[in-house]
Amino acid sequence: MSNSMNRIVKPLLFVMAVIAISSCATMFSGKTQNVKVSSYPDGARVFVDGKDQGVITPAEVKIRRKRKVELAFQKEGYPVGRMQEKGKFNPTTCVNLLGFIVPGTLIDWGTGSIYKYSNSIHYNFGQPVEEQKDPTITKGESSKAVSRDNPGGTDLERTIIRWFFDSEPRGARLFWRVISSVPAEVKNTNESYLGTTPYEETRSFNILGLTYENSRDVTVEIKLTRPGYMEQVKRFNVRQAIDQQEISSFFDLVAK
Q: DSSP string of 139-208?
């Protein structure tokens, strides 16, 4: 290699080495930091800057170093907890500052390595959300299910509903069945005979597994038949019927 080339290459290599070595915080601390996260009570899902970290407290998450980061803790039964963690000055950067090495300091600043977080972050959820979600539901009754083993044991079973159906012409036969979109809680049923039109009765919904919470996902199907006329079917949402204290309809029969 010629002397002129050496005069160009060696200083360039020296500058590159100085820059690489001088970015001390980036080299020794890295762009991210492992932080222990915990909550009271345990079992919260952790989000960093809105991104799910896929861990449940207590755990450890890798957080990118920067001036501040937003953390969220999500646990069923509690309001979502949010907190802000501010990055503190990383002492490792002092090596650059003391040496007046500007490139390394700029690298640390650009990568965020100039900041560091606390080694552990804790969030206290405080009081859980009240079970009561719907103001029309008596407190404590939202999840009590209808059961044949304890008849009349819930407000839902004691709620009397007016059943009324009529038709033109009258004398049509009425059948009803339960249609549930939550079959694990409330079973679908076969048709049962109610009576003939005009039909009126006051009674509760004796649907096993029914609660105020899942009643929105349950419907009652009413089928009306009469010889010489088209069969008619109508469906009624159970929660709406409970709120209205009534399930009723009029059928205008159509001849075949």
A: TT-TTPPP-TTSTT-SHHHH--EEEEEEEESS--EEEEEEEES-TTTS-----EEEEESSEEEEE----T
Read off the tokens for 110. Answer: 């650009």
Distance CA 110, CA 25 (A): 11
What span, in angstroms and rounded, lies between the C-alpha atoms of 5 and 21?
A: 24
Residue 180 CA to residue 155 CA, distance in Å, equals: 21
Q: Which domains does the chain have, with CATH numbers?
A: 3-124 (no CATH), 155-252 (2.60.40)
Which residue type, as a one-letter code, is found at position 108?
Answer: D
What's the pTM value of the predicted model, to 2 decimals? 0.50
pLDDT, tens digit, for every residue of 105-145? 444 444 445 678 889 999 999 877 655 466 677 778 888 89
